[in-house]
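Might I ask for a little of your time on a matter of protein folding? Here, with my thanks, is the record as I have it:
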Amino acid sequence: MGILVALALLTKTTIYAPVIVSSLLALAVSARAQGRQVLLRKLMMVYGLALLVSGWWFARNLLVYGDLDVFAWQRHDSVVLGQPTTAQWIAQHGLGATLQQFLAVSFRSFWAQFGWMGVLIDSRLYLFLAVASLTVCVAFIVWLVRIARHPALVSRYQRWALLLLLLVFLLVAAAHASYNLKFVQHQGRYLFPALVPIAVAWALGLLEWPSLIGQITTKLGAARSRATMLVPVLRGAAFCAFYLGFLVLDLVCLYLFIVPQLGG
């Protein structure tokens, strides 16, 4: 774990918070029955090893950039000096338009905006992605409500895991939003460190929709046993449609947009 944390520290500052939170919780869970001294010893071992492996890079940054610029943030700001700031953008376009632009571009570039933000896909495909995302989000929220009403449906370990995933997502989303408070960087790639929580939410949403359909068919008069038998079939169909649909989307993006505009 110490080596993994060190690799994260050497990779990108946007993953620092998720990695540190995840490793802290993992260490706390592994040592919960062994007492505080064991936990402290594990913390010292893991993070001591992480700093031992990665510390040379931060020492190098101090020597190269000076001014205690350990993460090279000051150097980055000086390099992108001509880049539009959020304050300038708000003054020019207004707060509402800036928020709308932030959400729209973040969504599009998270899914499919290539060539350093220069290659977009057809607007109808973005609409399809928006509808699919909204559909899955609604189902995931329904699943969360059902779990809140019936906590026994998930184990204690699963509840902690879900809380960890939610915390990771919130930290990544907050980092994306906070960075855009300074510079206009509406790039969905800043959400990529939260791909695991997002993927889990999608999977749970896809699993929940067939249950919702089963409940609706039961209320409409169908036999409960028939509706129960329908749920596994619908779940299989939902996942097949998901994989096939996004496989086709990948091929469409590659051969209709990326290759024609970047292939030369």
Remarks:
- The chain has a mean pLDDT of 86.
- The chain is about 75% helix and 0% strand.
- Strands lie at 113-114, 119-120.
- The first helix runs from residue 2 to 11.
